[in-house]
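## retry 2 of 3
previous attempt timed out at serialization; input unchanged, resubmitting
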Amino acid sequence: MALIDRFIVEFDTALRSVVGGAHAHRGTPGSEASSVTALDPSEREHAAGLMRVNHVGEVCAQALYQSQKLVARNPEIAQMLDHSAQEEMDHLAWCETRLQELGSHTSYLNPIWYAGSFAIGLVAGLAGDRWSLGFVAETEKQVENHLESHLKKLPEEDYRSRAIVDQMRIDEIEHGQAAISAGGSPLPESVKKIMQFMSTIMTSTAYKI
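## retry succeeded, writing output
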């Protein structure tokens, strides 16, 4: 792909991540269930808050994968990152659609989430492919735990949101395992704790804003 074509594709991805309009290549999980379930107003608001957090996570994932692809030394690793990013784009579209169905909105802070994650991914990528892959693996592990907690928090009747979150969880596990298999190095515990702290700030903020 020519440099200008690659720039256009990556810019389009960034734009869709921040302002919306992501396209999924796979059908939305839970599409057989009614999009409007018997949720009372408080349950609907709670489900929307959780799905907004999940959407922000996917905005961050796009930024991380984009920046890490840019500086990957090994073309095969860049290709692996691109494949994972494409599946993460499905997640982004699914969450966006579900938020619309719930009568809610994506985070107003998406440009900030994207810019911050892009910078972090760039640093991880510049540290070398082994550390970049290790960062991916740890990120996906923390996201997996986060999604598992959402499966417990979502209303039992919200089958559509639960199906989306569960498929996202399955994909994140695969992405993490792929990063490890490609040679990712375990991150220091101090870095893992910093990542957890930043994730806590992001989730608590995105739930409301």
